[in-house]
Structures are given as structure tokens and as C-alpha cells.
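Hi support team,

I submitted a single chain yesterday and got back a structure, but I'm not sure I'm reading the C-alpha cell output correctly. Could someone confirm the output below corresponds to the sequence I sent? I've pasted both exactly as they appear in my results page.

Thanks,
R.
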Amino acid sequence: MDRQKLMQTAAGKAKSQLVLKNAQVFAGFTGRFIKTDIAIEDGYIAGLGQYHGDREIDLKGKYITPGFIDSHVHIESSMLTPFGFAQAVVPKGTTTVVADPHEIANVGGETGIQYMLDASADLPLQIKFMLPSCVPATPLEDAGAVLKAGDLKPFLNDSRVLGLGELMDVPGVLNGTKTVWDKLNMIGPHHFVDGHAPMLKGKELMGYAAAGVDSDHECVTVEEAEDRLAAGMYLMIREGSAAHNLEALLPVINQHNSRFCCFCADDRHPGDLMKEGGVNAMVRQAIQQGLPLWQALQMATVNPATYFGMRDTGVIAPGRRADLLIFPDLEGWEPEAVYSGGQLVAKQGICIKDIWDSLEVPPVPGRLSQSVNLPELTIEQFALPIKGRRANVIGLIPKQLLTRHLWQEVPVVQGRAVAAPDQDILKLTVFERHHKTGQRGIGLVKGFGLSKGAIAQTIGHDSHNLIVIGTNDRDMLIAAQSLESCGGGIAIAAAGKVEEILPLPVGGLMTDKSAVETARQAAKMEQLAFKLGVNREYDPFLTLAFLSLPVIPELKLTDRGLVKVLNGRIIGIDEKM
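Hi R., thanks for writing in. Yes, this is the structure output for that exact sequence:
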């Protein structure tokens, strides 16, 4: 940016390249709309007022807001590469995201992080990064890589890297674990640390905040949210495909604390992004549920920009990037035009073809395209020996990532626990899939609803091992076997054959197919899952993915076995707690 040239234009001493005239412009610092022109020079806003330019567009009173900012997202959870993800979210108004690439880092280590940086370098979506803090998330699972402070520190030299991503290893923080504190200590005064601390409270929460953690997106109750704000932590309100926290947390927000609150569309599938949107959907829902418009817009723009120290975005003002959304009204929150860096990149919900077609997509490294490495699978590997008839069972909770720890009677045949769809009890298996170790964990789940067949996927937060849920061992084996040859993805098997498969050859997590094509196939598979009995309260694939995440209470399953999360240990299937 040539600041002197920008000043000349702003001061009216030089003609602007582009002027958007006669618009109602949201002033982020005041929370009001003002009628004005916007002068744009070399992709940046020069000034607000009455201007003339080489090109002038009369908006005739339409509304302009800054581009929306997603404060915490895992691009990999969209099942799309950065290019495909950008195609999905930009037409809906998201022009900046803060991404934590810990999904691909758990598969490919530094190679995964570098791929995400390379693949996002020149997109019409500004992508900032937080370095994955927990690879693997805990010692209770096996990931494809182990990242220590020395592996991460070189990435801090990249201007797009803002700090350390969600710090899930809360015990490591509070117990002074060296590998965790090495990462905290490498963070300088101009970087940030995102939190991840469900159910943490009291002095432990104070200790977590004192360690330098600046935010949390895992709140599910008003009490948790208020505790974070009281501890000086930014509140990121999440509304994903599996975790829906917006409605529950809106009562927390008021005129005194809203400036410390942001939106994040964490873990949204492509269909939801294409149909409902991302941050724009949260703005729409929040306003419909009574949040004042000015607060909703600040939470989507200037608040996350302020938190992350992004001084060039988040507000329509001189010297900021011309990331702008044009709306015909203040109701639907579907932008009719999206500008990124002063360039029109989407119109009426569709990407501008010439711009997107001109972008170069970097090749996928071999470590990521060949990431599924399993030993020969057999039906015997799905057997679950048990003593007696009672077992520890994972109980699902609708619209939450939290689970219940159930201790109940389960069906047993010849000393082995089995699935019983009529009782809504399914078998769950997690296989280590990165290094061909043969390590596996087996458990039982209640509440998923599947009545026929099995679902297998290489999406299993956070280590992304092969996770399989099913009503019978045969279909579980068939679904699991189908994923190795295609490089990973999601497969559904029933009656002894594969019914549908979605290949995700980039790390077993993403595809280079378009957002539209991926959303279509994912929707087709989702409907098949529902047809096979999956409870419609759940997103079938995201719910399954989080059943192997051992940092969200109460009971989860990794390749090492059942994890009692709050105790931080592996327990036996029939071990009475």
C-alpha cells in the first residue's frame, strides 16, 4: 500500500480509482449506518465522504458492511481445500478467516501446515493462521505427527500467523508440562493464544487465563461464558454443523461486554456453508433472536479484528482493506456483491468466474496424498470381549460435542459385547491409520440411531484415525476397507456392500473437487445415513468425528481405548468407575 498516494486520494487531491456512491455504510466504531461514498484506491479504502473517481457505482441507498470475519475455523472440516472453502464462504460474505490447521497437522505435521499456507496465499479470501498447539491433542491417542515448539516456531515468522491455536491440553497447562509451556513461552507480545476449555471453572480457569490464554470457543452455558469474560478472555460464540451454541449464549451479550464477543462458524460441512452460510448465518440468527443489529455486526467484523490485532480490516475506514459487502436490505443477510481487496469477487451468491479461474492451485505433497496406511483388516479385529453384562457406554447429547458416560447393561454373545440397533446401542472402533501400527480401540455408543449398516471415515478429531460405527461387524469391515484405496474419506456400507463413498484424498480430510460437487455428494450421503436410521438430531459425520476427541468430556474413544476425559485416563469397557 502506498500511503502517500492513499492520503492524496483521501484528501481529495487526486481522483479515486473506484467510488461506491450513495450508500448506507456501517461505521464499526460507532455502531451506526451513515450515508456516504466510499473512495477505493489500490484495494484499500481512501476515505468516506463525497468523492469522484475513474469508476463510480451508484448504490442508491443500499447497505455496506465490512467483510465478515470468522474468528475460529478449521478449513479441513469443510472437507474442502482452501480454494474450495473460499469458493463456499466468500459469496456468503466471509472475507477473512482465522484458521487453525491442526486437523491436517495431525496427519502431516509441518508439511500439512505449509500446504495450508501455500494453498491459501493468493485467494480472494484473507486467511490468517493460528499454529496447532496440540499435535497430538493428548497422550491418549496416536496422530500422524508430533509437533513441538521447535517445529512450530519458524512459522511465527510468517506475517499470516497470528499465534497459537486452541490450547486443548488444559492439564498440561495447569501441571506445567514442559512441551506445553515450551509452546506458550515461544509466543511473543504481538501474538495470541486461543483457548479450548470446556467445563473449566474457578481457580483452574484463572490459572488457564494467567498462562496467557486469550479466548475460548467451547462455552455451552451462560455461566461458562460469563466466567470467561470475567477472566478477561474473549468469548467466541460457535455455531457449527454439530455444535450449536449461539442460542444458548446470546443472553450473555449486553452493551457492556459485546465488544469482547465474536462469532465463529467452527466445523461446518460444505452443504451448510453453501445453503445457510457461515458468519452471515450467525448474524441473521442472532438478530432474529433479538440481538441488536449493531452488536451483531460488530461481533462479525471489528471485534475479531481488534482481538487479533488485524489493523487493516474489520472496519470501513481510511487505510483499511476494501473488504466490503453490499446488501439490498437488513433482513436476509445474503450479500448481493462481495469485494475483497477492492475487487468484485462474488455477485448474487456466485463467484466471479474469470477471477477464480485465474488462480493457481499448488500441488498436494505426497505425505498428504498417501496418508492412509492400515494393516490388513479382519472381522476379528472388531470383536469386543467383556466380563459380565454391564459396560461403559458413550451417550450422545443432541447438538453438543459433549457426551455422557453411561454404565449400563449391554447385549453380550459368547463373552463379547455386540451392537443392538433395537436398543440403539452401536459398536464403535478406532484404528490408527497413519503408521500401520495395528493399534485399535473398541467401544459402544448409545443415541446415534443407526439401524442398518455402518459408517467409516478418516475424519476423527483430532488425530484423524479411521473411525467406524455400525450395527454389525461385517458392514463395519467392508466400510473400513473401502477407504484405504481412495486415500481416505467417508464410506457407508449396508447389507454387505458399499452404498456410497466420498473420497477425501488430501490427508484423508479434504478434496480438490468444487464446493458445489462436494456439498452435493455429502448431502446425498447424509440422506442415506438418515435413511439407515441415524437420529436427525445429529450431523452424522461430524458427530462421528468428535467421538474420538479425548479433550471434550465425558467419555470418548481413541485408538488406545475408552477415555474418561476428566480423569485423563484409559478405562476398560467393563471397568466400573
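A quick pointer for reading it: The longest strand covers residues 16-27. Let us know if anything else looks off.

Best,
Support desk
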